[in-house]
Design a protein that fits this description.
This protein has helices spanning about 1-30, 90-100, 130-140, 160-165, 175-185, 210-215; strands spanning about 35, 40, 65-70, 105-115, 115-125, 150-155. By secondary structure, the protein is of the alpha+beta class. Helix 2 packs antiparallel against helix 3 (about 130-140). This is Sporulation protein.
Length: about 220
């Protein structure tokens, strides 16, 4: 009788351990359980990181992408880190160039993404340059954060000047004057329609471009 009870007890413990392991695996697989990464709650824990900057497109297996952010529960704690500082600008430029080549009458697209601007040079045989410029511009705006300003040009002679900034970064303040000169040349090309009330064709608010240039020249 005692042997039977002992055997039953061992079997019960084994089954309980198996259930716990299974529950642990379910939690690890993210089935309804969130894993915290900094102040981000990420459902799919099988990803090695939320945004992989080295492997190009991270979501290449058909999975949906879902990330949840929460404010800090501690009053006054500053967790509003610069979310845009970690953007892979080269990947954004690649997306914009790729999407723009899908537009009618647009090919050979070069895109530069800085910390606050997007410059797009494209070749086109369109009979409506302003319409094409508007399509290219809005395509670029759909990829980057709304705070960005987008400048476009179908003057392919400017491509080499844009390419000169390819290996630059936002910490080099000496390049800002040259960058502004290129933008001024791009503005001689059609820029499409105004974005909305109080914003010009490039998404700048009234007087914003002048103030931005003045601030940069003071650095």
């Amino acid at each position: 009788m005692k042997k039977s009870l002992i055997i039953l007890g061992i079997c019960g413990l084994t089954a309980l351990t198996a259930c716990q392991n299974q529950g642990h695996n379910v939690a690890r697989e993210g089935n309804g359980i969130y894993e915290r990464s900094g102040n981000t709650l990420n459902v799919n824990t099988q990803r090695s990181e939320i945004y992989n900057r080295h492997n190009g497109v991270t979501n290449n297996n058909g999975d949906f992408g879902y990330v949840r952010h929460q404010r800090s529960p501690i009053m006054g704690e500053n967790v509003s880190y610069n979310k845009y500082a970690t953007l892979d600008r080269e990947q954004l430029a690649d997306l914009i160039s790729g999407y723009c080549t899908d537009l009618p009458n647009v090919d050979d697209v070069s895109t530069l993404v800085t910390d606050e601007e997007v410059l797009v040079i494209y070749d086109t045989n369109s009979n409506n340059r302003n319409l094409t410029a508007d399509q290219v511009k809005r395509t670029a705006m759909s990829v980057v954060p709304r705070s960005y300003h987008v400048y476009v040009s179908d003057n392919t002679a400017l491509r080499k000047y844009v390419e000169n900034f390819a290996n630059s970064n936002s910490n080099n303040g000496n390049l800002q004057t040259s960058l502004n000169k290129v933008i001024n040349e791009m503005l001689k090309s059609p820029q499409g329609k105004k974005i909305g009330n109080g914003e010009n064709e490039n998404g700048e608010k009234m007087g914003e471009r002048k103030n931005k240039i003045d601030n940069r020249n003071m650095k």
